[in-house]
Write a structure and sequence with these properties.
Elements (H helix, E strand, L loop, with lengths): L5 H19 L11 H12 L9 E11 L9 H15 L4 E5 L4 E4 L1 H4 L7 H10 L5 E6 L8 E4 L4 E5 L9 H9 L23 E4 L2 E4 L68 H13 L20 E3 L4 E4 L3 E5 L7 E7 L7 E7 L3 E4 L7 E9 L13 E6 L4 H6 L3 E4 L7 E6 L5 E8 L4 E5 L8 E6 L6 E9 L3 E8 L1
Parallel strand pairs: 1-2, 1-3, 1-4, 4-6, 10-16
Antiparallel strand pairs: 5-6, 7-8, 9-11, 11-14, 12-13, 12-15, 15-16, 17-18, 18-21, 19-20, 19-22, 22-23
Zinc ion (ZN) binds next to α6.
Length: about 500
Amino acid sequence: MIAVDYRKILIFFVLMFSILSTQAQVCGTLSDLNGTRLKRNLKESLSQFNHKDGLIDYVPIQFIIVNRNDGTGGIPEERIFESLCLTNRLFASLEIQFYINDVFIELNSTSIFSQSTNNSGFVQALYDQNKVTNAINVFVGGELASGNSAYYSGGSDVIYMDKMYINNKDVILAHELGHFFSLRHTFWGWEQTDYDINNATPTAVFIGNTSHEVEYVDRNLNCAEAADLICDTPADYIRDWGGGCNYLGGAVDPIGVLLDPDERNLMAYYSFASCDQYYFSETQKSVILSDLNSRVALRDLEPNVLNPVLETVKLTSPLQGSSVFYDDVNLTWNPVENAEFYYIELSRLPSFGVIHEVLISDVNYVNISGLLMDRTYHWRVAPFNAIDFCSFEPSDQWSFITSETTSYNVLANQGKVYVYPNPCNGDKLSVKSNAKDEIISWQILDVTGKVCLSSSFSQSALPLSQSINVSGLETGLYIFSTRTKEFSIQQKFIIQ
Ligand SMILES: [Zn+2]
């Protein structure tokens, strides 16, 4: 008699179910049912695009971080960099490099973030309103109610990604880009049909009401007319394999030949099977290059900077260990050659083990408000640009202490002399003084300490109120410095 351990069986089924559930978290793309673009790209690729020329095609990609309406839920920026680095490695052999179009658009939209139906007309309209031209648009939001991890919207020509799959190991973004460039799944036709080992393999499967010829294993039969229309990707019918990077499920084609799919192909559904690598086939690569060539809006574009960032940032203020006003902290550093953006990390811990806040700035300063009082914060800054973002080289780390009031200057300044509006639109800066004594002189300095403007007010009547023409100053952070008989005051302001 065989003793049956029901507990083990139960655990087995729970495990199997969770593995299958994970496998089901795949892509929901079903566009281009006629394959019009794919067929054109295949035809073009035969004549023109079999070879690359050693020149990189730079393709801009715009990530749109989707939050809920209340601004919560958006993906942390660093995961986007990781995912794009991985994607660029997967596209390296095509000599395609995606670069960051702009850092990053934030969109508050629960309708997109928690969409109940993939790619509904309503959601497509929102995509169309918020996408940018001249870049591939990738909306990154919450989990899809459909259970899919992502999809390509042919109607809006954008990609939607569940943020869970934007990271340094999942290859879903590369798969969706394959759809963007007109590729079908290797198992095309089987999207709505489970392969059933217990029944004879049909010669046709259905998507909706449309029947599609099943691809045979033998390359001489119908590989160019069936499924993905591509002959260097073996026949595949499987979209729920949970057994690692070697399909052993025993599926056969309609004439009984054993299926041997390419589990490493990016357009198959073995993305979670822990294969040692993933790739596009040579014909798929040609199709992608043909499609890119046909997309006038994406062609012949280049990032502003083509060189990597070689230097690290030198922090300038607030000086290491200084005390600052908790609700108005200006962090500044020296600009770095080839840097278009700066990645600023703020942490309560010197180890940066927990990051309090990440900020991205396209200028060499940032203003932070709303910090806690009487706390020490550590900060560091890493420069990057649209093509160089895979390994951040942070600056030395400095710290500051937040307090209700800070240095003598700010203490002395309270309510006495101030400039406004701040930020200033670059036209007129107004000065107001409630001080009991006369302003003797003033200067406007940039962050390096260079005097940009200076003068003396002739006015001695109090309270002083006067405008300074700042239209000659470039955008940036400045220091307004004044002197009276009793004290000197410095106030930072921004021209934008
Ligand atoms: Zn897909």
